[in-house]
Every structure is written in C-alpha cells, then in structure tokens.
Amino acid sequence: MTSRRAVLDALDRIAFAAELTGDPRARTWASAAWAVRSATGDLAALCASGELATLRGVGPSTVRAVEQALRGETPDALAELAPRVPEGLFAIRRVEGLGPKKVRRLWEELGITSLGELEYACRENRLVTLSGFGDKTQAKVLDAIARLRATEGALRRDQAQAILEPVVHALLALPSVRRAAIAGDYARGEEL
C-alpha cells in the first residue's frame, strides 16, 4: 500500500468511525479527508513544508493524523474511535450505496456488524423494514455484496505494483540474484 493510500484510508476510517459513533467531529474529519485527497503532490513534503496545514479543512489534528499514518503508525484519532465500532462495519462501508448513516441504522436497529450478517438480513427480507430502505435498496445491497465477494483478494494494478516493485528491488539488491522480474497476470497485463 502506498503511503498516500494508507493516509487516505486512515482518514476515511476516522471519518467513518466518527460518524457511526455520533462524534461531533465527524463532519470535520470528513472534510479533512476530502481536503487531503484533493491535495496534489507528495504528502510527506506537504507536511514537512507546512503547506498541508494551510489547506481548507485541514487542522492540527489532521496534520498529526497524516504524519502518524505516513510513519506507519495508527493515528491517535483512529485509535480512540475504532474500538467503539465493530470491525465488520468497516467492511460494510465498502458496499456500494451504503453510507455512514445507513450503516449506522443497520448496526443500531438490526444489530448487523459484518458482511455475512448483512447478506443474511437481506435474504431474510429484514432491510425493507428499516426507514430509508426498500426492496430496490435491498436488492442493490445484495448485488453489491456479490460483487465484493467476486473481487475479494483482487488488487488494482497500482496496488499490485506498489507491492511487487519493492520486492523486485529487494531481490535485485541481493548479491546472489542476477535477474528478477514481475511475472504472471500482472506482467501479462491481465486483470488481477
């Protein structure tokens, strides 16, 4: 995972957890995540120069979270909020069409805390009883879960490249290795 991707994932998780727990800073974290996502250039350089703090929606807490994520640490804000949210809800947020408000409703009103439970609830027709959900939404959620399961374990090319290239460079740095190259589906340009 690239450092930028790790930072954006951490900020998205913070914003999501804040929204689910009713934290008053939820909107602030969501705006900060958007501002950092929209920032151009290297995040580490933006932090070092202080330019990141000048972006609209980015305050000292966001800068601290970005710096911690860049160092590979769990940001303090995430460490504070994440334990209050079941881990499975972070997987549910990847379901197309389910934003934080709907995920919160599923969690609070139906006790759903995992993708499996969500799929089971859809098959039992329990989502249609919730306000803001209907037959169409339930069908779309089931389709989205099926798509997620079909692509589970798959990576985008940029994600695969971020994993594979450092491995190749590390192998080439070994004195006993003459040649190393990426092979397989990635090298053939096929879907991963």
- Share of residues in helices: 55-70%
How confident overall, as mean pLDDT? 89
How much of the sequence is in beta strands? under 5%
The string of secondary-structure elements, in order, is HHHHHHHHHHH
Tally of separate helices: 11
Low-confidence stretches: none
The computed structural class is mainly alpha
Please give the number of β-strands.
Answer: 0
Global outline: flat
- Please describe the biggest sheet, giving its number of strands, its sense, and whether it closes into a barrel: none
What is the C-alpha radius of gyration, as a whole number of Å? 20 Å
Distance between the termini: 16 Å
Provide an overview of this structure.
- This protein is 61% helix and 0% strand.
- With 192 residues, the chain is mostly helical.
- The chain contains eleven helices and no strands.
Features:
11 helices, 192 residues, mainly alpha, 0% strand
Question: How are the SSEs placed, and which strands pair?
Answer:
Layout: H1 3-21, H2 26-38, H3 43-49, H4 60-70, H5 76-81, H6 87-92, H7 100-110, H8 115-123, H9 135-150, H10 157-172, H11 185-188
Short characterization:
With 192 residues, this protein is mostly helical. The chain has helices at residues 3-21, 26-38, 43-49, 60-70, 76-81, 87-92, 100-110, 115-123, 135-150, 157-172, 185-188. The longest helix has 19 residues, at 3-21.
